[in-house]
Amino acid sequence: MLQNGFRAALVQCLVGKDRLKNLENASNLIHKAKSNGAQLVALPECFNSPYGTKFFDEYAESIPDGPTSKMLSEAAKKHSIYIIGGTFPERDDNKLYNTCTVWNPNGDLIAKFRKMHLFDIDIPGGITFKESDILCSGRDLVTFEMFGVTVGLGICYDLRFEELAKLYRIKGCKLLVYPGAFNMTTGPLHWELLQRSRALDNQLYVFAISPARGEHGYIAWGHSQVTDPWGKVVAQAKHGEEIIYSDLDFTECDKVRAQIPIFDQRRTDIYDTVCKI
Ligand SMILES: NC(=O)CC(=O)C(=O)O
């Protein structure tokens, strides 16, 4: 255990159409990350299925009953680590969600976050995507504790919404984790910039974990990334299958917060960010 934090591994796995192969591959990469000292392993958005509205229904599982939950729970327990299980389509009460699950070293499900802002965009000549054709959006901010640190969850498009990140900062988070699959249109300009912005605005670590870039269907940008509370990119993957590691030191959050105290300097007498839950 590091003195002021822990070692994290971001697993940028390649995802195909075969659910069981996807699970086996993720499980092998989790094993590898643990062998390299990871205490937290994080997976990408839609790691058990291709990313696309036509796939969500077919690959959806109820949580924690399906094979994807089972693999994540068993891997967390076997390796005695925390796992942020990327996302997979969740079925609940005949509705579908894009959902992130978190598992503790006993294999228990300790958090579940449903994508709050659905990815509905239309860039002519670039990309058109409408998650809301099939998915419902989540309504809850979700945090959990690990090694004394409060962690907040978001998924991909949620990264674009500063209000969500600010609410997590207000709730005491020092790490925000976004499994995400940006694409070849938005990825080059926005992926790194958005993560650095959320990290700098809120003076916390940000993780974003992408699938590796495939050749068919929705092409993910890749470049999974760790950004520190100063807004510096401290680890970044290329676009293929890869694991990146980062030794986190949460005293960096305390330092930047003390040295540049923007949180206490906010003019909440003029404006405010209100958490309604
Ligand atoms: N896939 C997403 O949810 C978001 C994305 O690709 C983008 O915001 O760009």
Description:
There is one protein chain. This protein is α/β, with parallel strands linked by helices. It has one domain: Carbon-nitrogen hydrolase (Nitrilase/N-carbamoyl-D-aminoacid amidohydrolase). It is built from seven helices and 15 strands. It has helices at residues 19-35, 53-59, 67-79, 162-170, 187-202, 251-259, 262-265, and strands at residues 7-12, 40-42, 82-84, 88-92, 95-103, 109-114, 120-122, 128-130, 143-146, 149-153, 175-179, 205-209, 225-227, 233-236, 242-247. Strands 1, 2, 3, 4, 5, 6 and 15 form a seven-stranded mixed β-sheet that branches. The chain has a six-stranded mixed β-sheet with strand order 9-10-11-12-13-14, covered by helices on one side. Strand 1, helix 1 (19-35) and strand 2 form a beta-alpha-beta unit. The longest helix is centred in the N-terminal third of the chain and has 17 residues, at 19-35. The protein is globular and about 50 Å long. The mean pLDDT is 97. The structure holds ligand LQR7VSFR. The ligand NC(=O)CC(=O)C(=O)O binds at residues 119, 156-157, 160, 181-183, 186, 190.
